[in-house]
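Board notes, transcribed. Complex of a protein with 2-acetamido-2-deoxy-beta-D-glucopyranose.
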Amino acid sequence: MKTRKCFIRQLVLLILSLLLWLYIYRGDNYQEEAITLQDKHELIQNQHSDLNKFYRRPTLTMDLIGERLLQTSLGHHSPVNLNMTEKARYVNRMCRHINWQKRTVKSRHPVFFFSEQAGLLACKAPKTGSTLIGALFRAINMSGEKNVSKVFQLGRNKIHKGLDEIRDQLITEDIIESTSHVMVTRDPYSRLYSAFIDKYFLLGRLGRDLAIHLKRGFKEGNGTYCGYDYTFQDFLDYVIHLATNMVEMNEHMVPVSQLCDVCNVRYDLISSQEKLTKDTDQILKLIKTVSIDRLEVIRKSIKSQQSTLLSLVSSYIFDYNNNKNDCPDKMAFSAKLWKTFQVQGIVHSELVFPENEFSQFSFHEREAANMTSAILTQIKYKPLSSPERDLQRRRYLVKAYSGITWPTIAKLQNIYRLDIALFGYPSYPPTII
Ligand SMILES: *[C@@H]1O[C@H](CO)[C@@H](O)[C@H](O)[C@H]1NC(C)=O
Ligand SMILES: *[C@@H]1O[C@H](CO)[C@@H](O)[C@H](O)[C@H]1NC(C)=O
Ligand SMILES: *[C@@H]1O[C@H](CO)[C@@H](O)[C@H](O)[C@H]1NC(C)=O
Ligand SMILES: *[C@@H]1O[C@H](CO)[C@@H](O)[C@H](O)[C@H]1NC(C)=O
């Protein structure tokens, strides 16, 4: 009698575990290694109907003709290889076929850098090189004979202070008439990863907010803690959560097409973060009101690795001092910085974190120049050529997305579909190096 009861109990337990196992592994075939890319594509296509059940229909409606037109035009010539003027024309043409009224996500209004002197109005979109654009406008606008090279060494905390900026509500007909309108795009997948590294892997309010939202704590290890305990997958699902529920999304993640209200503001020049350095040369050529000497200083500064790195280091020191409590161990933070520079293609991925070099710094603002020199010295041991830099960046990007589930990618595709369609970016994150 006793053994029979025992047997039934074990049987029930076995069945329960089997059901649990089936439940846990129910959707796992999406990640099956053996599935080819083509299969995956079809999987996502088929899934779309399913997915619609889980999230609201995008409120930004593109009429069918427009959508089809976008797809066919993309098939033939992608706008990626057009110059800035041609790309703007292409996008403006595409806009006629889109019902551009509602928004895919909840976000702030557009903000522009404005230079009356140069006749330029540039949309401010974080993670598309907006610190460089901000510095450019500051430099154009600076009075007198000042050497403007220092402007390009300022951290983003000093650039994004509202100077040389104007909100869309304050833009008058006069301003619209007298300026060329510029915006910069970026591949949404690489932009998301860059936002994750900068704002969530490193320290800051946004990173903290996500840790709180997920009810996670700090990342612990080596007898200390530093930063927040979540993954890139968690972050992407959070972005999807914000979009799906129309919760205000931070500007770093808002689709650029929406952030710059691309179909209402008629842009004359559309650049991309991928080609920004080259394109700024073109923009500088259009400016007639700035002395040749100053334009030369600006050109040199934009290309200077020292300036770029100093601007970054200054920003990171500033961020660290504002968020020290989230990483009391300076060396742990320095190690994170090193990793960040590797992801950004500044430091070779094989260069080991130079603990000794960093131990001398206390992360005071005035150390920015010395820290930059120390990093530049390290970089010289194993410098990266320009193609190597691109390759390294891509390698990190591929790795970051390799673990992301396909349902997540499909939902991101939908949130960023206008960035993808209008600016000609791939529908999928890169999977091949
Ligand atoms: C920059 O330009 C704006 C208008 O274009 C002007 O109001 C402002 O004073 C300028 N700033 C400097 C530092 O020249
Ligand atoms: C401007 O300053 C930088 C360094 O601060 C210097 O290298 C450059 O030669 C200066 N340019 C001019 C035109 O004075
Ligand atoms: C602990 O230290 C090792 C080696 O220094 C490093 O690779 C690892 O990322 C550190 N872990 C944390 C959580 O800081
Ligand atoms: C920067 O380095 C120089 C030379 O190594 C040193 O004299 C100076 O005190 C350092 N500055 C700071 C702020 O640490």
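Residues 64-423 form one domain. Residues 24-66 have pLDDT under 50 and may be disordered.
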